[in-house]
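Problem 12. The chain below contains 290 residues. Write out its predicted structure in token notation.
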Amino acid sequence: MSISETEIGEIVDRALAEDLGKGDVTTEALIHPQWHGTGIIVAKQDGVLAGVEIARRVFHRVDACLRTEVLMPDGAKVRPGDGISRIEGSIASILKAERVALNFVQRLSGIATLTSLYVEKVKGLPVCIMDTRKTTPGLRLLEKYAVRVGGGRNHRMTLGDAILIKDNHLTALRRRGLKNIKQIIIEARKNAPSLLGTERATIEIEVRTVAEAVEAAEAGADIIMLDNMSIEDMRQAVRLVGGRALIEASGGITLDNVRAVAETGVNFISVGALTHSAKALDISLELEVT
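Solution.
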């Protein structure tokens, strides 16, 4: 997992503080601190796992004495009834950590599972499924990690990663006198080195028509994002751009149409739904008292 221990710790601590509040008063009122047991995290539906290590760290954050064992790693395909992790030790500690641990693994596994479905739909075609910045505030690192587990690729992690000129940038620039795409790309290239620390920055621009796509290619854009275009317009844009730039399709992408989009010849397909609309995978914790 390409996320630092510090970053994971901060995310887990925020989630635990949010859930525990002043403490688990139900558990403290009813469960003796010396009672021991075993919790098994179990899959309830088919899917692709992600976040198992995050869940394990939640249990250790609550109680360092808990013994945890990962039974199935991130990226594993699970079926109903599969045991994912085992946690042994204080029942009170297991109960205090249960909800937060499950929230992480359910949410991230849902994202990995949905991503894997999109990736499977375009199997055999030279195209990459990518995410967007439409992530849950505070959870972007984990959600984009889950996309990678599901076989997808990450687009920008932050606004500082690359230049991507979108519709509202174009609106603002055109109101200030930069009327055409060539002028805008020249201006971006002029300012990019000092901002990104590289002599030849990649410039991506969003377009809504085939004519704009051709104009962007002629202006020297590196990547052209086709926003909410029809399949036929995408196909025409790819043909007319003729390999002068990489092409990304975005907007209105679903499991039903993603293969048709891929068959137009685009290089990338970005899907906001991977993170903003993924349904949590059904996963639970079953407690065994010893």
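Discussion. The mean pLDDT is 95. Students who got a different answer should revisit the alignment rule from Section 12.3.
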